[in-house]
Amino acid sequence: MDISFLGGPRPQRGVGVVAPFDFALDRELWRWVPDEVSLHLTRTPYVPVEVSLDLARLVSEHETLSDGVRTLTAIAPEVVAYACTSGSFVGGIAGERAMCEAMTRAGAIPAVTTSGALLEALTELGVRRVALVTPYTVSVTRALEEYVAEAGTVVTGCAFMGLTRHIWKVPYRDVADMARQAVRRDADALFISCTNLPTYDVIPQLEAELRIPVISANQVTMWAALRRLGTRAVGPYQALIDPAARIDPQARGGAALPEVPDVPEQEQQ
């Protein structure tokens, strides 16, 4: 069979991703990525610490980040993303900016972090009041609230799960329950924190129910990284990605809200 008419693969563009050692949702990141872009992932070294502020500091040390970026240089990505929310908000806004600078120095390419992408997404959506959902303990959750407040955004409500391990095993129905607890009528948007928390399939359903933009850690990371490439993230009817999915604030109240459907177990993992 003559396949010469195919002409070979299209030129590939790359996004480098540095993630903590326990990151388990590689497939979820890929679901936001268009066909012409490839992800190149590397992990930070293992440390025997549960999810906590201590772990956030350990996996975001500048030397650790620089080593991660240098492992990707042979692949020549056009941008590098640090995919960890707590690791990128634990030092506040100044700490997040310093992390980006350290990664850029290590690879001479643009760098983004999950928490930096969060603030970028809030600005894109015009959000002044945000509700938060986290899988974290109270201390890590409070650090996120402080980070968001430092950026000038009001936290209107918060729900957290108190987990210190195996966050990637949380089912969508638990995420939806937390969202309902966190969101009040005065929230402009909901942010679901932690790159190890599955969110891809639940975002459109929650946006339909809550009638506000719903953004998540993995979503904003990929959205911001792909933005640096001059391309767009892909995804089914998500307000951050598709302006047509953004609900007019004047139309948010009064409508009957559908239940978030259960997602098959195989889709949650």
* Shape by Cα distribution: globular
Q: Mean of residue pLDDT? A: 91
Question: Helix share of residues?
Answer: 25-40%
Strand-residue fraction? Answer: 15-25%
Total helical segments: 11
Subunit organisation of the chains: single chain
Strand order of the largest sheet: 2-1-3-4
Major beta sheet summary = 4 strands, parallel
The end-to-end distance, rounded to whole angstroms, is: 39 Å
Write the H/E string, N to C: EHEHHEHHEHEHEHEHEHH
Secondary-structure-based class equals: alpha/beta
Which regions have little confidence, pLDDT < 50, spanning 5+ residues?
Answer: 254-269
Instruction: Count every beta strand, where a strand is a DSSP E run of 2 or more residues.
Output: 8
Radius of gyration: 18 Å
Verbal overview:
- This protein is of the alpha/beta class and 269 residues long.
- It has 11 helices and 8 strands.
- It has helices at residues 26-30, 53-58, 62-72, 85-89, 92-107, 114-125, 138-150, 172-182, 202-210, 217-228, 265-268; strands spanning 13-19, 37-43, 79-82, 111-113, 129-134, 154-160, 189-192, 214-216.
- The strands form 2 sheets. Strands 2-1-3-4 form a 4-stranded parallel sheet, sandwiched between helices.
- β1 (13-19), α1 (26-30) and β2 (37-43) form a beta-alpha-beta unit.
- α3 packs parallel to α5.
- It is globular.
- The protein starts with 12 loop residues before the first strand and ends with a helix.
